[in-house]
Amino acid sequence: MSNSLPQVLMHSAPSLYEHLDAFAQIVESAVRLAGASEDEQVDLMVAVMEALNNAIDHGNGEDASKKVHLKIDIHPASITVWVQDEGGGFDPNATPDPVAPENLMNNSGRGLLMMRAFMDEVDFMPSQKGTLVKMIKYFSSKSSPSHC
């Protein structure tokens, strides 16, 4: 555990897939700073990159005049990630169930499921100014002892 925590990392870029590498480097830096386990690092990378992809594609429609914003709060026992787009907002409850039999063969539609599976908390806050996704991962290796 680092004595330099908590820390905040932020990055914004136009809604183009070519900017995903810069976002990925920031997420990688954050999980290293946090001291997350290897499994937690993978979970975080998958969930955050999925949220960023969704912001670029679904939120902003790959419109380079709109930006995607990333903020990561790193604490000793957790990491909180915010991904914000500048689109029209969306209702996550209106998305088709990706595990419903009629959707199993679809090539897309599993992103929200993965985000919810890999993070401990996922909240979607849609507005007319875009959608803000807040995700929290608690580190099992740093949690307080369980009560047996």
Query: How many domain units?
Result: 1
Overall geometric form: globular
Query: Taking strands numbered 1, 2, ... along the chain, how are they ordered across the largest sheet?
Result: 1-2-3-5-4
Q: Helix count, per DSSP?
A: 3
Class in CATH? Answer: Alpha Beta
Q: What does this molecule look like?
A:
The protein has 148 residues and is α+β, with helices and mostly antiparallel strands. It is built from 3 helices and 5 strands. The chain has a 5-stranded antiparallel beta sheet with strand order 1-2-3-5-4, with helices on one face. Helix 1 runs antiparallel to helix 2. The longest helix is centred in the first third of the chain and has 22 residues. The two termini are 25 Å apart.
Keywords:
148 residues, alpha+beta, Heat Shock Protein 90, 30% helix, disordered C terminus
Write the layout of secondary structure elements.
Blueprint: E1 7-14, H1 20-34, H2 38-59, E2 67-75, E3 78-84, H3 111-118, E4 121-127, E5 130-138
Antiparallel strand pairs: 1-2, 2-3, 3-5, 4-5
